[in-house]
Specification:
The chain starts with a helix and ends with a strand. It is built from 2 helices and 10 strands. The chain has 2 domains: 38 residues; 106 residues, Sandwich (Immunoglobulin-like). The longest helix is centred in the first third of the chain and has 43 residues. The protein is of the alpha+beta class. The structure holds copper (II) ion. The site of copper (II) ion has 6 residues, from loops.
Amino acid sequence: MGEKKSLSATATSPAYGIGLIAVIVGMSVGLIFYTGFYLPESLAKPSVSEHILNPEETFVIDIVPGAVIEGNDSYVPNKATVLLGISNHVIWENNDETPHTVTPDHRTADSYSGDFGSIGVVMPGETFEFLFTEAQEIPYHCDPHPWMKGTIKIEKSRF
Ligand SMILES: [Cu+2]
């Protein structure tokens, strides 16, 4: 009887030990992943709600044909207002035959998306897009054609 008991005990304990080690290893891997990869990444960027990261609409600002000529319409709509969580993803479309820029009058950054403004020129037929995540008002212009001016205002949604 006594022999049998000890036999079954020695038979189950290594399996139990392996199971325990597997659990410990699994938990450590999880902890290492959480502290080493997940946490730094989630702390690096401010937390922004899903509605703001994936707004329902894109808001298009047209750089109209003939925008290069002083006195013509340039950025249309010229004073645009967008709402966070609804239309804060903005696309400037260059429908003119001249390259233009979207350049803030003063250096402006969004804490999630970074510095605002096109990098270099937006070629005819091309676009510049930006995801705004904070309420602010930004006057901007075209670098090669400073008479081309516009304003984009980002507002909190009331809903
Ligand atoms: Cu221009």
